[in-house]
Specification:
With 292 residues, the chain is α+β, with helices and mostly antiparallel strands. The chain is built from 9 helices and 6 strands. It has a 6-stranded antiparallel β-sheet.
Length: 292
C-alpha cells in the first residue's frame, strides 16, 4: 500500500504544514497495522512504532497550537484541551493497557482503532475549523467539578454493575472505534418535553462477561438474549448515573434502540455533545456520550 493510496484528500484542510503532518501520522498508523499482522516480530516492532507515533503526534500538537496562536484562532483553548486530553490521558492509558497486556493483539487493536478514529474525527471536525471550513464542534468544555462528578458516578456505577475498576481514557471521546461493540441510543424527555440523547458503546467482551456473570453461564457470542440484557444494563447505567448526579427526577425514558457503528459515527459528526467519556475496565472499553 503506497503512502499516496493511504491518504484521502478530504482530510486536507489547506494548511500545508498541518496537512503534511496529518499525512505522516496516517502513514505511521498504516505501518502499525501492517506490523501488527507479523506474529514473529510484530510485538517488538509495534512497540517501537507506537513510541514513534506518540512522539510525532505530540510534536504535531505543539506545532499546530503554535499556528493557532499565530492566527489568534478563537477556538484555541478548547482545541488545546482536546490535544491535552490525547497527550495526557488517552495515549498514557493506551500505553498502560499495552504494557500490562504484554502488547496483546487486543490491546494493539485498541491502540490502532482509537488513534486512527481520533485522528479522523479530529481532522474532519476540529482541524477543518482552524482553516474556517466549518464551525467548531465543541461549543463549551465541561471540565472541572461537573466532569469529575460524572466520571465518579460512571466509575461507581460500572463497578457496581460489572464489578470492574475503571480508568478514564478520554474526556473528549470522538466516536472512534475500539473494537466490536454494542451501541445503544437512549432518548429522554425533560418536564418541558426537551430531548436528551445518551449514547453508550460497550465492547462486546465487556457485555459477554457481564451477562455470563448474571446468568452464571459461560457465553462467547452475542445473540438476541445477550443483546436484550445488554440494552437493559445500559438503561440501568444511565438511571444510576442520574441518581448519583441528582438528576433522576428531571428525565424519563422515551425510547431505546441499537445503532450500527456507521449510524453512531454519523450521529457524532452531525451533533454537538456536552459530555463524551471513554473508559477502560480491563475487560473491555466503554463510552458514554450525552447531548443536552
Amino acid at each position: 500500500m503506497s503512502k499516496e493510496a493511504e491518504w484521502d484528500k478530504r482530510f486536507n484542510i489547506g494548511i500545508d504544514s498541518i496537512d503534511k503532518a496529518h499525512r505522516k501520522l496516517f502513514s505511521i498508523v498504516h505501518k502499525l497495522i501492517e506490523l501488527s499482522k507479523d506474529k514473529s516480530s510484530g510485538q517488538w516492532a509495534c512497540a517501537e512504532g507506537i513510541k514513534y507515533f506518540k512522539n510525532y503526534a505530540v510534536k504535531h500538537f505543539a506545532d499546530e497550537e503554535a499556528y493557532m496562536r499565530s492566527i489568534d484562532y478563537k477556538g484555541y483553548e478548547i482545541h488545546k484541551r482536546l490535544h491535552d486530553d490525547m497527550r495526557q490521558k488517552t495515549l498514557p492509558a493506551l500505553e498502560k493497557d499495552l504494557t500490562e497486556s504484554g502488547y496483546s493483539e487486543e490491546s494493539i487493536h485498541h491502540f490502532i482503532g482509537i488513534c486512527i478514529g481520533w485522528l479522523t474525527a479530529h481532522i474532519i471536525i476540529e482541524d477543518r475549523a482552524i482553516a474556517g471550513l466549518i464551525s467548531n464542534k465543541w461549543k463549551t468544555d465541561h471540565a472541572g467539578a461537573d466532569m469529575d462528578a460524572l466520571e465518579n458516578a460512571l466509575s461507581g456505577t460500572i463497578h457496581e454493575i460489572f464489578r470492574l475498576p475503571t480508568e478514564i481514557v478520554s474526556e473528549h471521546y470522538s466516536g472512534e472505534s475500539f473494537g466490536k461493540s454494542m451501541i445503544i441510543r437512549l432518548t429522554y424527555l425533560t418536564a418541558d418535553q426537551e430531548e436528551v440523547q445518551i449514547f453508550m458503546a460497550l465492547e462486546e467482551s465487556l457485555v459477554l462477561r457481564a451477562v455470563s456473570s448474571i446468568l452464571n453461564v459461560p457465553l462467547n457470542k452475542m445473540d438476541q438474549l445477550v443483546m436484550a440484557i445488554g440494552k437493559e444494563l445500559a438503561v440501568r447505567i444511565a438511571e444510576q448515573v442520574a441518581i448519583r448526579c441528582n438528576l433522576a427526577l428531571r428525565y424519563h425514558l422515551k425510547s431505546s434502540h441499537f445503532m450500527t457503528p456507521e449510524q453512531f459515527r454519523q450521529a457524532f459528526y452531525a451533533g454537538n455533545f456536552d459530555y463524551s467519556l471513554l473508559f477502560n475496565t480491563g475487560r473491555g472499553y466503554f463510552a458514554f456520550v450525552v447531548g443536552l
